[in-house]
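Blinded run. Sample ID left blank on purpose so nobody reads anything into the name before looking at the predicted structure. Input follows.
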Amino acid sequence: MSQIIVDSAKTVRRLSMDAIEAIPESLFDIRPEGFNNTIRWNVGHLIYWMDAYRSLCFSAETAIPSSYAAFFNSGTKPADWTATPPDKEKLLAMMARQLASVGEIAPGRLNEPLPSPLTFGPLTFRLAGELFNFGLMHESMHLATCGSLVKAASVRSAGVSAS
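Blinded prediction complete.
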């Protein structure tokens, strides 16, 4: 089962990268009405949390710039940014590096207990695989949000009413 989680992680990340590659960067910073964040924020959020899940699950050292926390951690938003966030090319390159690192995960490590249980809202994770698998669902949810943002931003940039 652990190998399936590793393989699924690689598949989800490849699908994410393909979808993001197809989005014009001109849509990355549009925040349509009804959305809290932008495509750029969601992509960076995927990167930030994949790095965090690797650290929490496998005690891996962070492999992303320290600035990513201020840009993309939960609770942040583009309206509060005071510096220039990474461009699409840099985000995709970071995603590619993370994809390679996912391929290096020894499946047996997913069966290891976390140093202490980790609780996110109503969810409690005790094993590395439980948390890492949740990360795949998290990535999928934000990828779906990117798809919704593309549709809404495309309508907005075309000057067509969304109603």
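Unblinding after everyone has recorded impressions. The longest strand covers residues 113-120.
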